[in-house]
Amino acid sequence: MKTKIYQIIVLFILSQVFITCRNEPKQIPDSTKTEKQDTLQAQQVDEFNLLVDYLEQNGNYINSPYCPAMIDAKKVKENLGKEDFLVIDVRKPVHFEEGHIKGAKNVKYYDILNYFKNEINPDNYEKIVMVCYSGQSASYLTSLLNMLGYDNVYAMKFGMSSWNKENAKNYWLKNISDKYIEQLETDEHPKNKAGEYPKLFTGEKDAKKILEKQAENILMDPFKSKLVSADEVFNNKEKYYVINYWPKDHYLQGHIPGAVQYTPKKSLSKDTFLNTLPTDKPIVLYCFTGQHASMVAAYLNLLGYDARVLKYGANSFMHSKLVKNKWHPFTSKKIYNFKLEKALQEAY
């Protein structure tokens, strides 16, 4: 009898322990709590303002006299062979092998940051020159690298089209046009009202790390995805916020219908008109050649905008007007027809 009573008491005690354990709230491991806290804190960081303030306080490249950092093909030729002068060609390996600048290194577009960090010491060079087909993707990368602190990087004007006539024939000479010169307008269009800035979510809290992460992110998209043709813009103007990146007096002499004028080097900072850019539609920038606009597009994409560039700039739709006014037209005078190196080189 005593044994049965003892068993009943033990069972009762065990049932109470089970109920207590079942109702007791689960304890979240400290590591999980920390991860959730870090995520919450990251969401509260205003990454956009951290980044733009950092860029404006460290050279303010896009709005500085130093932009666009470009170098003429003739100057490149004069400096070849110098130990402190490096040429980086970001064209496809097959085109590089067909002919390139003597001593140039072939680096894949999306590998450029890794190349600067791990394959060379950029400080060893007085000038590092980026080279592409037309000058536009090289300008995009040049801008990005300058904002990352590599202020000895330049883009070669007009790319390999300026170096050799065969390249020019396939790129620049093939794309200059007056196709839409009769559709230009002279009406002035107001900028958007001030609005919200883009939101960035890199998860970083330090401005420099945010910059590096954003640079890595935008290089995941090939540069050709940032290019828009004149046909696309003229036929779908309502789809884009079109920016004319010229001095105002040039703008008033004829521009893409609906385009809004922004003054180069002065209009895209926090204390001017950066907050007039839309965050809900693509922005298309155009300048005379597409090279300066490519540098600005790199800046805007870093900040989280959807920025595109007009291929070959205004040369692609109003070339003769640029020639007449001497507004940076591409002509045969820009082609030096220097010798091409054809020896094979292993691409990085």
In brief:
The protein has helices spanning 2-23, 30-44, 47-57, 73-79, 93-98, 112-119, 136-147, 160-163, 165-170, 172-175, 207-218, 230-235, 248-251, 291-302, 319-325, and strands spanning 70-71, 85-89, 105-106, 127-131, 153-156, 227-228, 241-244, 260-261, 283-286, 307-310. The protein is α/β, with parallel strands linked by helices and 348 residues long.
Give the CATH level 1 class of the largest domain: Alpha Beta
Main sheet makeup: 5 strands, parallel
Helix/strand order? HHHEHEHEHEHEHHHHEHEHEEHEH
Which strand order does the major sheet show? 1-5-4-2-3
Classify the fold: give the CATH topology of the largest domain.
Answer: Oxidized Rhodanese, domain 1
Principal-axes geometry comes out as: globular
Cα-atom radius of gyration: 28 Å
What's the structural domain tally? 2
Average pLDDT level: 90
Proportion of helical residues: 25-40%
How many strands appear in the DSSP assignment? 10
Contiguous low-pLDDT stretches (5 residues minimum) are: 1-6, 17-29, 36-40
Structural class: alpha/beta
